Amino acid sequence: MQIRIKCGCGAESCREWAIIELQGFVEVQPSFQDRLQNLVIGELCRPSSQESYTFTVGYHELTGSKVPLKKPLLVLKKVKCMDVDQSCEGSSAGTDLEVVGIIRHRILFNTRPQALISKP
């Protein structure tokens, strides 16, 4: 089975994405369970140095670093093709994959969070 992959942005101009890796898991309150898409869980900042990142979730702050991946990953989007479209000839089951971005790095937060509020 052959699946065609299209990239219209060119090798040098593909959008750069990153993976955020957290230790543990993020629990969502029951009131937000049905609205997870576009749910803001925190704020990701890059202070002065480019290799250091902070991720603030509520009253907790995580510090992480940028780590390169051993092999880059592609972010793909499935595109359904019509039979009349000439560009989809030979593709399997009338679908193509379009490159949305490329992932070359991950931001790794491997330490415990620090509390931003202290007792008086």
From TrEMBL:
Q: Name one GO cellular component term.
A: Ctf18 RFC-like complex
Q: InterPro entries, from UniProt?
A: Ctf8
A Pfam family it matches: Ctf8
Q: Which BP terms does GO give this entry?
A: mitotic sister chromatid cohesion
Protein origin, superkingdom: Eukaryota
Q: What is this protein called?
A: Chromosome transmission fidelity protein 8
| Protein species of origin | Citrus clementina
User: Species lineage, top-down?
Assistant: Eukaryota, Viridiplantae, Streptophyta, Embryophyta, Tracheophyta
